[in-house]
Design brief:
Largest sheet of chain A: 7 strands, mixed
CATH architecture of the largest domain in chain A: 3-Layer(aba) Sandwich
CATH superfamily of the largest domain in chain A: Type I PLP-dependent aspartate aminotransferase-like (Major domain)
Protein name (chains A, B): Kynureninase
Distance between the termini of chain A: 32 Å
Number of domains of chain A: 2
Order of helices and strands of chain A: EHHHEHEHEHEHEHEEHHEEHEEEH
Oligomer: homodimer
Function (chains A, B): Catalyzes the cleavage of L-kynurenine (L-Kyn) and L-3-hydroxykynurenine (L-3OHKyn) into anthranilic acid (AA) and 3-hydroxyanthranilic acid (3-OHAA), respectively.
Helix content of chain A: 25-40%
Keywords (chains A, B): Hydrolase, Pyridine nucleotide biosynthesis, Pyridoxal phosphate
Strand content of chain A: 5-15%
Number of helices of chain A: 12
Largest interface: A-B, 95 and 95 residues
Strand order of the largest sheet of chain A: 2-8-7-6-5-3-4
GO molecular function, one term (chains A, B): kynureninase activity
Structural class of chain A: alpha/beta
Subunit structure (chains A, B): Homodimer.
Radius of gyration of chain A: 21 Å
Chain lengths: 394, 394
């Protein structure tokens, strides 16, 4: 049953609509960190790699994430950051299509995905091209020179969703490899990696999965292609026998070959603890709750604030678990909201972004948030000098 | 003054000689983790990127590490794993020498450094070659087709040290770019990055720096070349304006361009807390203490255990802060030692490895350890079936 507010510690007076940027803290986090730090590291020291089974933790966490994205156990590797996982996926995909020279993405993709792809092809320096049409033009842009289609399923600014099934099918029909970035999907919408047939997916865990600031990323590879992958980031923990200390790299015969270096045990443990809150959650129920919250939010805000222009799709079926409004004074307005306990965020140039996390939000929260928004917008409370100074992160 | 045992929590009955693999837990770790998790993440949520200055943490920690390796503030970026940092350095160095095709390392290097370099050149696929002569033949192998010399200063198995000044000078005289891996150097021996004139250094922080399991890595770039580096791993947090969300990558005009994705805030905070133990430590004093401990250890062990053959250099000036002994039954013997509270580790095929961390070890520890070693070896206590089964990490 949703929500599961009792599993989270939300500060008094806060309505947190930014779980799409940094998920809220599960109550279990602190105890797990303390266990890892004082008992495992502190008491077991180096032995904890075995006695606390740190070595198996990346795979254990990967299996739990797999369960949330419609993927089989053993198909998800964890570690590093999403940027690194994008690089691994694109590099592997390009090697699977040696005769093609185009990476197709879209200009709504999160910038780091584009940067990482560009950094890779500049490094390879063999005439690769990164194409970024508008999101709605992607399907038409899939041509038979495309090696890789790399898209983020849910747009970080607007919440618009790509049709994973249709685009994957078209990409593969054209002979391209498909990579999905699930940053705003994992834990937000039902994902069926197996059903999609896509070769790769990547994602982060500090948003809807509540792993904490900078928690590790993940990468999925379709089981039938795993052993063909030639890892660009050929780290020792992706080796078939890391502790044999062989001079030559031999990739593990599993998704483990997409591991790189020593795993961040404390953050992986926090993520593992956070995933407890997902035990038994039915993703269809989660999606229904998410849509109910976002539809209610749009109705309540639009009826009170004609100044705000919906920047997300109207149709909830094509929208992730967030709603954005465009507003010329969006930056200042978001600061004013945050000051009053309604925490969303701002994305340049004018997007006020609100995320819906049915694990710890209910309808009362949404109505209360809409009232504060109405107050801030209707009474121009954002028009105070203290809300105009930009901080680095919003 | 050394040691600073009061800053660390070493379990009763343990003599910890494996700080070269995973440093001991500073007492400050738990309180800092609790602060970051319950106060910053829990109470401030997304705002903590500003209010707790998470955005500045990677650079703050980088500056503190810089101080320990003879590098100026602003020259060290932190994050990711050492494997990733090796990849960044090698990729950047190869682009600085576009007409050369050889990476020179040695066959004593830690395997992941070799794997990452190989993965990179296989990805670029333009006829690059990774050469790995024996460590003692490296100087002679520096020829004018070498683009990059990439070495680990202190050998992970034996503690043998390369001459950083001499090799860097020879590499640069031949027109090559120099990369030093400081995994077993940072916090272990005095390092003078500025004085070495090397272009790059990389390292990890969970060994002598005590950052905790999987704490983030670091990369140094010589300040005069930073703005020529074309990052292969062009992540958004290395962008000049990450939150402008530009479609094209523009690297930061500083070492920040070697940052990649979202930093692991909890582990960075643990590392930051661990670095407090290094405040005011004089590296010359540390080195003197380290040599005193290792010389005493060799003397005490050799006098008691003729069965053990010293696998480290006799001359402490050419040895890092560890001592290794070769022993045919080394694996079982190490298990027997660990069972008796003397914790070192084993590296295939026959190396018993002991690290010396003057922050939390004194001469009494060394003598006590030698007595336990004498008991285990002299009385064949390792010859018990329970010590023969290999675990994954030792």
């Amino acid at each position: 049953m949703l929500p599961r507010k009792d599993l989270f510690d939300i500060p008094e007076g806060v309505i947190y609509l930014d779980g799409n940027s940094l998920g809220a803290m599960p109550k279990a986090a602190q105890a797990r960190a303390s266990q890892v730090i004082t008992q495992e590291w502190g008491k077991e020291l180096i032995k904890a790699w075995n006695t606390a089974d740190w070595m198996a933790l990346p795979q254990k966490v990967g299996d739990r994430i797999a369960g949330l994205i419609g993927a089989p156990a053993g198909s998800v590797a964890t570690g590093d950051t999403l940027s690194i996982k994008v690089y691994q996926a694109v590099a592997a995909a390009l090697r699977m299509r040696p005769d093609r020279r185009v990476i197709l993405s879209d200009n709504g993709n999160f910038p780091t995905d584009l940067y990482m792809a560009q950094g890779l092809i500049d490094t390879i320096d063999k005439g690769y091209e990164l194409r970024t049409p508008a999101p709605e033009d992607v399907l038409a842009a899939i041509s038979d020179d495309v090696a890789v289609v790399m898209l983020t399923q849910v747009d970080y600014r607007t919440g618009r969703m790509h049709d994973m099934q249709a685009i994957t099918k078209a990409a593969q029909a054209a002979g391209a490899v498909m990579i999905w970035d699930l940053a705003h999907s994992a834990g937000a919408v039902p994902v069926d990696m197996t059903g999609s047939n896509a070769e790769f997916a990547v994602g982060c865990t500090y948003k809807y999965l509540n792993g904490g600031p900078g928690s590790p990323a993940f990468i999925y590879a379709r089981p039938d292609i795993v052993n063909q992958i030639e890892p660009a980031l050929a780290g020792w923990l992706g080796h078939d026998a890391p502790f044999a200390m062989e001079l030559g790299y031999r990739p593990a015969m599993s998704t483990e070959r997409l591991r790189v270096g020593t795993p961040p045990i404390v953050q992986l443990s926090l993520l593992d603890a956070a995933l407890d809150a997902w035990e038994g959650v039915d993703m269809a129920e989660l999606r229904a709750a998410s849509i109910e919250l976002s539809e209610l939010f749009i109705k309540e805000v639009e009826s009170r604030c004609p100044q705000l222009k919906l920047a997300s799709p109207c149709d909830p079926e094509t929208r992730g678990s967030q709603v954005s409004f465009a507003f010329d004074h969006g930056y200042a307005a978001m600061q004013a909201l945050i000051d009053r306990g309604v925490i969303g965020d701002f994305r340049a140039p004018d997007i006020m972004r609100f995320g819906f996390t049915p694990l710890y939000l209910d309808k009362d929260d949404i109505i209360a948030a809409a009232e504060v928004i109405a107050d801030v917008i209707g009474n121009d409370l954002w028009d105070d000098p203290k809300y105009q100074t930009k901080s680095r992160v919003t």
